[in-house]
């Protein structure tokens, strides 16, 4: 067999895992990502994606977080892995720890709007509305027409008692819908 044989090519397995994940077939995706990680054990992204789909398959999340931690050992400067850690922690009901992970992701890649959305949502769950609002504002700077950012900013502004500013946000959300 040569390096180009799909059976031994970690990139082929990873691509197959992405297709399965995107189709909602998390068990199949997990098998594909596991194979990619076995074939290329130093690729942090493979371990990160494996962790995410493992979480989708097992609500406990312990094995998923082990994969994410391993991915971070391999590449501690990868913002996407920090975001993946935050997502799992958030879903496990630990928004405080999720905030730390999302902050790390935004520090490493401040131009990724999804990281700011996740950070804002985690702050909002903690009822820390000022930092939530700031995260949503940065997201709006990155993607000015994103309806979700405007809606979420409006919601936290209402929680802060700033009705007029909130209505402005909801109007923008409606305008961009």
UniProtKB/TrEMBL annotation:
Pfam family, one: TPR_11
Keywords: Repeat, TPR repeat
InterPro entries (UniProt xref): TPR-like_helical_dom_sf (IPR011990), TPR_rpt (IPR019734), Ycf3/AcsC/BcsC/TPR_MFPF (IPR051685)
Keyword Iron listed: no
Coiled-coil blocks: none
SMART domains noted in UniProt: TPR
Recorded superkingdom: Archaea
TPR repeat segments: 10-43, 79-112, 113-146
Protein name: Tetratricopeptide TPR_2 repeat protein
Species per Swiss-Prot/TrEMBL record: Methanocorpusculum labreanum (strain ATCC 43576 / DSM 4855 / Z)
